[in-house]
Specification:
alpha+beta, Thiol Ester Dehydrase, Chain A, six-stranded antiparallel beta sheet, 2 helices
């Protein structure tokens, strides 16, 4: 779980299959010691985990990635230069305990990551 150590949720709102949150990134997190020393970059796996945790927060249940149709990393995030990002989700519950999700991590017109895929709701 990255929330609370890698990032902190500053604001969030959920309404009608939409979720938006403003996150503060922790530039002092140990992951940046290896990725990369002197030039920190948010790892793609951390961006994906942030999307998953945001969906879990919204649905209030655990989910597991089932399929990623689109996963594009468009701009690197340096947590020193860009200490806050927005996560935006649109989702739709599907049969068989699945959730279709379209998500983006962005801030002030810059889109860092786009995602489209399916998660399975864990029982």
């Amino acid at each position: 779980m990255l929330e609370g150590s890698f990032y902190t949720v500053l604001q969030s709102q959920a309404a009608a299959e939409n979720y938006a949150a403003l996150l503060s990134l922790n530039a002092a997190h140990p992951v940046f010691e290896g990725h990369f020393p002197g030039q920190p970059v948010v790892p793609g796996v951390c961006m994906m985990q942030t999307i998953q945790e945001s969906l879990e927060r919204c649905l209030q249940c655990k989910v597991q990635l089932q399929k990623a149709n689109i996963m594009k990393f468009l701009v690197l995030i340096d947590p020193v230069v860009q200490p806050q990002v927005n996560v935006e989700l649109k989702y739709a519950l599907q049969p068989e305990n699945t959730v279709k999700v379209t998500a983006a991590i962005k801030h002030e017109g810059t889109v860092f990551m786009k995602f489209q895929g399916t998660f399975k709701i864990s029982n």
